[in-house]
């Protein structure tokens, strides 16, 4: 973003937002900034207000999420809450996975519950996409893991040159005691696809060393996992 000429100011106290008759003006930390437009990001929360839950025995938490058990069942038996409304990670694929759990519970086939859910990868669809799974190095250290890590610049990757798009980096965080992958951050073209492969390795306790000697097609972004995991 900085390369694109965007200035990022963190820890700013907004004093006012006004309009000079033409454009919005923000006063922040005592200085005036004029913009073409102001986008105001508030975050999201479960949309449970004004649907009459107060007339039921369905329990909500302090953020308005419907409290559910491990099969997405609310405090009223046989009433289920799936997706954003139950306060889990707010992604389409988590709503789908909640469905799998409820479908299993209702048809009697279900052994899979919220407790069994493994790593949840996610992507911020920037250009290029920023995809993550598991812990960052800082998270892992804070959790008491002894970690080893490796980073690679996309500019060193053959496929990036084929694509003529060199921006980005890969980083992997590994538990130094057993070589299991604790997390990864991929910031590159194709990262939104690749992250799912790392998620599967993590879910199945496949050590990072497995990627080092995997045969991958060339020229692809995925083949760079050979080098990323060569340490
Ligand atoms: C801008 C934006 C970008 C996103 N991008 C991504 C992304 O790239 N990838 C991703 O995985 N997730 C993304 N998400 C999140 C994803 O959209 C949600 O997690 C997902 O839609 C949740 O599914 P849901 O079925 O729980 O709720 P919803 O999809 O919100 O469905 C709820 C439905 O209930 C209806 N409804 C609400 N109140 C009532 C009522 N009283 N009576 C009847 N019907 C009602 C609504 O109209 C809606 O159709 C994004 C969300 C936003 C806002």
Give the distinct bound molecules. flavin-adenine dinucleotide
- DSSP helical segment count: 6
The coarse silhouette is flat
Structural class, by secondary structure, is alpha+beta
Structural commentary:
With 231 residues, the protein is an alpha+beta fold. Helices cover 22% and strands 19% of the residues. The protein has a five-stranded antiparallel β-sheet with strand order 4-5-8-7-6. A three-stranded antiparallel β-sheet has the order 1-2-3, with no helix packed on it. The radius of gyration is 23 Å and the shape is flat. It starts with 13 loop residues before the first strand and ends with a helix. The model has no long low-confidence stretch (mean pLDDT 95). Bound molecules: flavin-adenine dinucleotide (FAD). Residues 47, 51, 83-85, 90-93, 95, 125 line the site of flavin-adenine dinucleotide.
